[in-house]
């Protein structure tokens, strides 16, 4: 197995993407909390459309302990 490092490029990119996701989530929460009906509907429909378009292919989880004796 390869060793994992905290400062690897992949970990830094994942961290930046996580910060971006949390920031966008908080901004959408603030938009929703304006209680403007049209904005609330737009956020809900956008979340639904994003889920429909981007999560139709589920990740496959492989149990690596299945073949261990």
TrEMBL record:
A molecular function (GO) term: copper ion transmembrane transporter activity
Pfam families per record: Ctr
Membrane topology: Multi-pass membrane protein
Catalytically driven reaction(s): Cu(+)(out) = Cu(+)(in); Ag(+)(out) = Ag(+)(in)
Highest taxon above the source species: Eukaryota
This protein's UniProt keywords: Cell membrane, Copper, Copper transport, Disulfide bond, Endosome, Ion transport, Membrane, Oxidation, Phosphoprotein, Transmembrane, Transmembrane helix, Transport
A GO cellular-component term linked to this record: late endosome membrane
Subcellular localization, as worded in the UniProt entry: Apical cell membrane; Basolateral cell membrane; Early endosome membrane; Late endosome membrane
Keyword Transmembrane helix annotated: yes
Transmembrane residue ranges: 12-29, 35-54
Signal peptide limits: none
Function noted in UniProt: Mobilizes copper(1+) out of the endosomal compartment, making copper(1+) available for export out of the cells.
Family membership: Belongs to the copper transporter (Ctr) (TC 1.A.56) family. SLC31A subfamily.
The protein's name: Copper transport protein
Organism: Muraenolepis orangiensis (Patagonian moray cod)
């Amino acid at each position: 197995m390869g060793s994992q490092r905290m400062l690897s490029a992949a970990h830094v990119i994942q961290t930046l993407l996580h910060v971006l996701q949390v920031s966008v989530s908080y901004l959408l929460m603030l938009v929703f909390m304006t209680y403007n009906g049209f904005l609330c509907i737009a956020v809900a429909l956008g979340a639904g459309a994003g889920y429909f378009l981007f999560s139709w292919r589920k990740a496959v989880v492989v149990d690596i302990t299945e073949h261990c004796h």
